[in-house]
Amino acid sequence: MKKSLILLAGYPGTGKTYLANLILVKFPNIGFLSPDEIKEKNWDQYGFKNLSEKELLIQRSWKDYYHELEMQFKQGVSMISDYPFSEKQKECLQQLTKKYAYQVLTIRLVAELSVLYERQKVRDLDHSRHLGHLLLSYQKEDRMVNHEKADNLLEYDEFMKRCKTRGYGEFSLGRLIELDVTDFSSVHYEELLEKVNKFLNTE
């Protein structure tokens, strides 16, 4: 297996984590690093009293993410990472992969935005969703039985604005495979996994 970084990019609600798990099952020697998991860990550790403090923790989380990614690269570990990547992350990722001679595959997941908003809403209301994503202030001790009462839920107009202006649907680094997941039942994941296998081993 060549030293590789697989970026699962694209809009929120496209099933990036699901796809990451499929790839990790088929290729168990690949490591996994999630920016969101790092954010959630920092939110639990430090908490935030307002959106400014939350943003500072997000910036800290990205520094932690790049540091951990580089540690894995130094050991030659192939990695997979899922996030709605944009131009904000591209330069750092490009520099790291060039420095350590990693090939990059971007799998960009896209879908109809109205469908994705409904998926996002369902995800936010699920009790497995970390409250740090949904609140204006957060401490680990916080507990909310009903997520519908969260004070920072993403509204339709804001969701659409983010999707249309942040470049989620345009991001790519290295080789690009785009996958439409408007209808999950019609997605040919096995075919995609074969493309991933070819990328990792024969190109």
TrEMBL record:
It holds the Pfam family AAA_33. Keywords: Kinase, Transferase. InterPro entries: P-loop_NTPase (IPR027417). It comes from the Bacteria. The keyword Transferase applies. GO terms for molecular function: kinase activity. This is Kinase. It comes from Candidatus Enterococcus murrayae.
